[in-house]
Amino acid sequence: MLANHAAFHHGRVVDTIVQNGGDVRLSSGLSTYRVMLLQIARDYAGLPDVRTLTVPEIVFFYGGLRPELTKYTRPKPMKGRHG
Amino acid sequence: MSAAVVDLKGGKYRVALEVAEKEFVRLCDANRIDHDTSELTEDERKEWDGLKSEIVREIRRGTLIVGEDGKPTYTPPGSSKGYTFHPATGATLMALESYGSGKNISNLVAAMAEVTRTDRGEFSKLPAKDFQACSRIMRLFITAA
Questions:
Q1: Which residue of B has its CA nearest to A6?
Q2: What angle do CA B99, A36, A30 make, to 5 degrees?
Q3: Domain limits of chain B?
Q4: Are B124 and B67 in contact (CB under 8 A)?
Q5: Which end of chain B has fewer CB within 10 Å, C or N?
Q6: Can you tell me the distance from the alpha carbon of A52 to that of A48, in angstroms, rounded to the nearest whole number?
Q7: Each residue of B73-111: pLDDT tens digit?
């Protein structure tokens, strides 16, 4: 991974990822699409070669996972201490 | 008379500032780059403005042309060969991690070679000024992708 993404601009892209049950905009496109690519590579068994996927395609496949990612990454309520 | 017109008369630029800025916005829109700076911090905005002004300057000089499909092509002055930056793919993201951490320039060149569909060695032969121009476009893409 690029150290602190130092060679890269800290601007943003229009796309968001799902974290903690909500949409989060990361600080760079590299971070955003890296997360998306790894997630879709893990979750779609019949995905085409990930090296050939364009950014709109990555976003498309990631979009299909949004509802379940939102559900499963939602923070769970803290349980109180017993005893 | 606007500053852009004065510059054009001086012969330094081929494209008016207003036109170049519109081309920059079109380049951003075609590549999913958020050009709204309202949510950026002051440092981020300075960095963005610096990158934007350099790219706009290349458009004004005529060395950087944004195609109808939003793909930018950089042609070094006096050269017949241009470098067209194709949309980033999964391979581009992987190329950015070719050499591990701490080797940002090597990773950047690997990604540039991937999106321009050229050999990595070609960038090592470019004059520094042209290499920097290409790397700025790549940085925008990675802000891009």
A1: B104
A2: 45
A3: 3-142
A4: no
A5: N
A6: 8
A7: 999 998 888 999 998 899 999 998 888 778 888 989 999
